[in-house]
Amino acid sequence: MVDLFIMEYLTVLYMIMVFLFMDSRYSRRRTLFIVSSVTILLMAMVDALYRAVNMDAAFWIFAITIHIPLILLLFTLSRFRGWRLIFQQLSVVLFCTVIHHISSLIYYLSGSRFWVLVLSCTFLSTWSIWFLVRFLRPLFFQILLELHRGWWLICLVMATYYIISVFLIPGYAGFDLRGTILKPAIGLLILGFYSILMFLFSNVRKEAEARHNAQISVLQLSALQSRMEAVRVAENAIRTERHDLRHRLQAVAELVARGDREAALDFLDAAQQRLDDHKPVRWCRPPVLDAVFSSYFDQARQQGIQVEANLALPDTLPVNEGELAIVLANALENAIHANLELPQEQRKLRCKLLASPGIMLELANPCTGGITFGPDGLPLARLDGHGLGCQSISAFCRKHGAVCQFTLEDGWFRLRLIL
To answer: Are the beta carbons of 396 and 327 closer than 8 angstroms?
Structure first.
């Protein structure tokens, strides 16, 4: 009875941990339905296995019965692949194994009282699930997104622990004294390694956030300085025009006195045109975004790129203005660089940004082709150090639950973003 309880309990615990450690590509409801269905099926298989073979064979086959469907389930549902997928699998195994071994140690020390085993399993599982949901899970997914190297080494350490603890140390935790002591001890040791790993990742995340905030501050300062410079130039031009106004009025008066009304009107139209040319354009209400658009549209025009813009944004935005400014700056910079590869008569930039019913952005530019897309839908960089702008846009979308799409249609490269 105790053997069957442990195997069924571990089956349920494995599936709960899978749900917690997995960033599913499907909706939460669909993911929960799939995981629940697999859990019920595995529990029935475990019960059949327990009744078909003896305890020794059941414990050995149990690992295969659970872990093969587990990795297949993760492969089917998870957004991640490669070593990140293996890390998800091994994290599930680590927490489940440590909970099992510690509760088995408590059960052994209590004199093999079944109610103590049930109580310890319940308490440890509840506390671990609360800790994962409250603290570890957000950091875990952030690490999967931001860490790009070293996954194989981390997986090697965790896989070594699993092989040693489950297959190389003889005896079963809760039934054999040696296994009951050694397995929790090694589990706590590897859990300490995992905690140090999370701590280091947490520091890396804080540094990344600090760099991101600094990048936003630099962009805001640069864009606002550029905007201020444009306003200052316009003010100087208007001041000059105001200084020359009395001369122009005198000239107009002379033309009217002569009866040359057409020449007077043309003279006034030319003066009005000069004033309009120096008047700074306000693209949208939010000041940082207005400064970003002004800066990059001016750069585009200086490169001979025809700009078509349709922008409509309110004063308040559903996201941080600085973060959205980073997205727009990256997208506009990429579009300008792509245009520079074309003859000047073909250079164009089309930008549409609306805020109703939600923020909807479409940025399009002609391109020479040759763009390939990765499995995540992002354009693949042709040179080292390139492609960071698209990755930054994708990270913004994941953070705020936005949808972005990169497409190449009829010679036009388009970025569509809906928030």
So the answer is: yes
CA 208 from centre of chain = 13
Q: Domain check: are 294 and 416 in the same one?
A: yes
Q: Which domain holds residue 407?
A: 283-419
CB 8 within 8 A of CB 54: no
- For the chain, the domain total comes to 2
Task: Evaluate whether residue 302 is within a structural domain.
Answer: yes
Indicate the residue among 178, 212, 246 that finishes a domain: 212
Q: H or E stretch including 364?
A: strand 360-366
Task: Please check whether residues 31 and 159 belong to one and the same domain.
Answer: yes
Report the percentage of the chain scoring pLDDT > 90. Answer: 1
- Listed residue (197, 32, 190) closest to 97, CA to CA: 190
Is pTM, for the whole model, over 0.85?
no
pLDDT tens readout for residues 119-136: 988 999 899 889 888 888
How many other CB atoms sit within 10 Å of the CB of residue 33? 12
Residue range 50-62, pLDDT digits in tens: 777 776 666 677 7
